[in-house]
Amino acid sequence: MTRNIMIVGVGGQGTLLASRILGNTVINEGYDVKVSEVHGMSQRGGSVVTYVKYGDKVFSPIIDRGEADIILAFEMLEAYRAMPYLKKGGKMIVNTQEINPMPVIIGSAEYPENIGEKMSSKLDLTQVDAASIAKEAGNIKAVNVVLIGVMAKSTDIPYENWVETIKSTVPPKFLEVNLKAFDLGYNS
Asked: Is the pLDDT of residue 42 over 60?
């Protein structure tokens, strides 16, 4: 059994830390893991896509259209763009935040309306106001760990194992807020 998880967002949202937490957690569970930041710009505003594949033996991190078991989306438009990659019966978890891409900022395009409604009629969608939850945890930048918490709830990996990975992955000065963010996301 191989599990395919895509993490999509924009630069500056913490998608790489989220993929590191996910990858380290499944490694600690004894799985073979491949992680790849396939394309994107790590600077603020550019699309970022990370693939995480794990199972008994994984040969490539690439996830093709229709193969993702879970898509963890940090932003609505990025979720919408990633829809073709979700497999039939897969699950999408999306932060309800909307970040205008450059064409919208310069006025040459409009941000699509009602993305959540359009997606929820087509797939298993969990929408989360991760920004509000992150603020409640103490730092708006903890959106990434809130979303990891929401996703963790739908895996068979025990809560404590996720917490241990966060403790060993997140820098100590950010640990308390990230543990709270994970807990709030997990229990949302």
From this structure: no
